[in-house]
Write a structure and sequence with these properties.
- The protein is mainly β and 78 residues long.
- Helix content is 10%, strand content 44%.
- It has a three-stranded antiparallel β-sheet. Strands 2-3-4 form a three-stranded antiparallel β-sheet, with no helix packed on it.
- The protein is globular and about 40 Å long.
Length: 78
């Protein structure tokens, strides 16, 4: 299984109202949670975590940011 999640190294981190650690309310009232290596281990470890790699996803329609920083998390079932 492969999951993609926001990275705490993304440009959006820290923007908006902080709800809890690593969790922010966006300008569109969407709760965004940003992972780091510790939270990935904590949240995906019990699901057969094989690895996690930080990736840069291009943003096509943004003038100020050229990419979004995400985690690609790989797990193996059972």
């Amino acid at each position: 299984m492969v999951f993609v999640t926001l990275s705490a190294n993304d440009y959006q981190y820290g923007k908006g109202k902080e709800i809890s650690q690593n969790r922010f309310l966006s300008k569109h009232n969407v709760e965004l949670y940003f992972h780091n290596t510790t939270t990935i281990d904590e949240e995906f470890g019990e699901f057969g975590l094989i690895g996690a790699k930080e990736i840069l996803e291009p943003i096509k329609k943004s003038k100020s940011n050229t990419h979004q920083t995400l985690w690609m998390v790989t797990c193996k079932k059972g």
